[in-house]
Amino acid sequence: MSNIYENPLIRRYASQEMLELFSPDKKFQTWRKLWITLAEAQKELGLSITDEQIAEMKAFENNINYDRAREIEKKTRHDVMSHVHAFGEQCPTAMPIIHLGATSAFVGGNTDVLVMKEALEIVRNKLVNVIDKLAKFSEECKDVPTLGFTHFQPAQLTTVGKRATLWNMDLVQDLYDVEYTIETLMLRGAKGTTGTQASYLNLFDGDHDKVEALDKLIASKLGFEKTFPVTGQTYSRKLDSRILNALSGLGQSMHKITNDLRLLQHLKEVEEPFEKNQIGSSAMAYKRNPMRSERIASLSRYLMANAMNPAMTVSTQWFERTLDDSANRRISLPEAFLVADSILDIMNNVVSGLVVYDKVIYKHVMAELPFMATENIIMEAVKKGGDRQELHEAIRVHSMEAAKQVKQHGLENDLLSRIVKDSIFGLTEEDVSKLTDPALFIGRSPEQVITFNNEVVKPITDKYKNALGQEADLKV
Fold first, then answer.
1. Could you tell me if 386 and 426 are in contact, meaning their C-beta atoms sit under 8 angstroms apart?
2. What would the pLDDT profile of 55-83 be if each residue is shown by its tens digit?
3. What separation, in Å, do the N-terminal and C-terminal C-alpha atoms of the chain show?
4. Do residue 93 and residue 110 come from a single domain?
5. Overall domain count for the chain
6. Is 255 a catalytic residue?
7. Is 280's pLDDT higher than 90?
8. Which residue among 310, 332, 360 closes a domain?
9. Which of 23, 78, 208, 281 is catalytic?
10. Do 187 and 253 share a domain, yes or no?
11. 224 is in which domain, residue-wise?
12. pLDDT at 371 over 70
């Protein structure tokens, strides 16, 4: 057991895949990959860099002398230059051309983009899995009538499946935002100390075409179509804000979904998975707390709040750059992805095992449906010769009495039996039963589920079929 603070995202929540992506090892290996890519591009464009130098760099790309880098950083107080020197000591032939013409932001900024692109792809794939499983759940429950709520007051009926499509619609919009963010990502490229490319122009003896070609060649070698057309010393921090806004949107949706699930679990209508040996409360052994949904909600709040960090950073950068972004970004950017990763894994687990209690749902429906069915009952009674105005008044009186039985005396809603007993309606118990079939009150809910899943979800799952089938193994 450690005697110093440990980030719960590491120990309790985030996946190994995402943790490794934001590890120091991944960062420093990417720095070396970028230095090799820069040297290769410069060589191809005519600078005097040899194959031997590049081969030497590649030999040590993933064999990083961390101890030496730490020793140098203690003296230089500069993380990038400590790794330039440490790399150079391993590659004496290549040392003169490592980091040639570059500034620290070349490795720092481009690494951030490369890592966040991979992280966004992980988020996208996990989100698609949640969307796929929710779609299947909605299909299974598309015909199960349930009370709709507005203001958390009983409203017209919907179905369990239709409600799940509302959750999924939000997640689909989040997916669109994540996809757009990935598709429009640009590398910082090779821009020099203040973004003017002056150092590269000097290296290429004033050849502007080669400087532009260098920028494009680096992007191409790293799998990007574009670099930022213009930058200061860093790429615009607006990119960080865009990315975290997309993740914040995911947090908003997840929080809303889990709010609904927590309320449904209170109503005993739908429950998240509850394992055989799981303990709901240390004091109350009977409890089945919606702890996964609560955890998602808790982490989602952090994710939403975290979006303010890059918003403040981008708004307060001075001219070509200030360093007050650095310490904040080291924390806020990785943690945003670790949180997004965590809530997606937990939600994957939740939607894989949702439990629906049909009989409880039906009981709640039938407690309210008599009031909703009154117009249908009046119309049927009119067909049998009744006077609409007299029937309306009779319904009103019976409804008030039935409501009193429920609210003041805690009894069952007896409106329907009152109507059957009142000869003014001329309706039998069988007549009233047919008129109060919950399926008559769900509108196009089943058809909407089918249409949504076929027209919205299926193109997504077809597109990402190779990413489907992920299961989440929760740490706690």
1. yes
2. 999 999 999 999 999 999 999 999 999 99
3. 17
4. no
5. 3
6. no
7. no
8. 360
9. 281
10. yes
11. 104-360
12. yes
